Each structure stands twice: as C-alpha cells, then as structure tokens.
TrEMBL record:
Annotated protein name in UniProt: RNA-processing protein
Species, as recorded: Natronococcus pandeyae
Top-level division of the source organism's lineage: Archaea
SUPFAM superfamilies attached to this UniProt entry: Eukaryotic type KH-domain (KH-domain type I)
Signal peptide range: none
Database matches in PROSITE patterns: KH_TYPE_1 (PS50084)
Length: 188
C-alpha cells in the first residue's frame, strides 16, 4: 500500500462527481483508493494486476499536481508514458522570484506552456510550485529541458527554437522507426 498526499483543493477532482472519477481510477488501475479528505492523504492499495497497480499512486499524484483525471489516466495506456515534476520552488530564491519564474514558464496568456505542450506532444500543467509533465521519455525530456532553460533565465526565443528542434527530431525519429508495415499511416 502506498500513501500519496495531495492538496486539499484537488480532492474533489480526484473523487469526481458522485465518486465517478475515483471508481474509474480504481477500475482502470486495479487499485483501491482510501481518501482522507481532512488531510489530503490517499492510500492506494493494489487489488488486481500488480503492474497496473504501480501506476495507481502516479495517477493520484498527477491529479494532485493539477492534471485532469482523463490526462492522468493516460499513464495506464502504455508503459512508456511517464509522469514527471519540475520543482519551480527549488530554482527560486524567494517568493517574488518564484512568482517571476512561474510566470516565465506560463508565458503571456499561457502561450509558453501551450508551446511546450504543442511542440513536445506531452501534457503540461503548472500548479502551485511545480510544473507537471505526462508523456513519453523524449517528450518529458524536451519539456524538462525547456523548463530548466527558462528557470535558468534563457530567453524565450531560444527556448522556443530548442523545442522546435526537438519537435523535428522526434517527428523524424517517429517516421523512421515507427512506420508499421501495412498500416498505411505513420505513427508519431
């Protein structure tokens, strides 16, 4: 049994309307969730396939870090889908610096976060003092690198160029290595 602590304001999202989301996670990940809404503690107990059960705590953590349940459940689709966090607070000197760095990651009107998502193919959420990423290892790596560049003060233009370069590399590799015989379409 694993214990995961999530913010108070994300408990409702984890449970869902009438417990719908919680039941879906329990069924899909083959786990049992015991949610303590007083302190935000969630006990995740595997009740079925142990491999699927390993993803249960990750799904709960992803929802706790701001992902919608349907994006968090993508972790079950494939063993190659990862959940990663970038700690913005660790890169900041104080509260004001933290707000500034978070603003750099979000960008004007959310454009930087959107571009990270579009060009990497990963799901990206900025919540509290973390940037959460759900995607394949190359996607997660691209977003993590871009976020670290921005946190280190790199100009947005340079980061966008880096993301476009990685996007083209992933696209090129996808066409080279993931063309399934007889399918007639490319898998990227």
């Amino acid at each position: 049994m694993k214990h995961v602590k999530i913010p108070q304001d994300r408990i409702g999202v984890l449970i869902g309307e009438g417990g719908e989301t919680m039941r879906e996670i329990e069924a899909e990940a083959e786990v049992r969730l015991d949610i303590d809404s007083e302190n935000g503690s969630v006990a995740v107990e595997t009740v079925g396939d142990p491999v699927r059960g390993l993803k249960g705590p990750e799904i709960v953590r992803a929802i706790g870090r701001g992902f919608p349940p349907e994006e968090a459940l993508q972790l079950l689709q494939d063993d190659m889908i990862l959940f990663d966090l970038v700690d913005i607070d660790a890169a900041a000197r104080n509260t004001n610096d933290m707000k500034r760095k978070k603003g750099r990651l979000i960008g004007e009107g959310g454009r930087t976060r959107e571009l990270m998502e579009e060009l990497s193919g990963a799901n990206v959420v900025i919540y509290g003092s973390t940037l959460g990423i759900i995607g394949t290892p190359p996607q997660v790596d691209a977003v993590r690198s871009a976020a670290e560049m921005l946190l280190d003060g790199a100009p947005h233009g340079a980061v966008y160029s880096f993301l476009e370069e990685r996007h083209n590399e992933m696209k090129h590799q996808g066409m080279q290595y993931h063309r399934y015989p007889g399918s007639g379409e490319e898998q990227v």
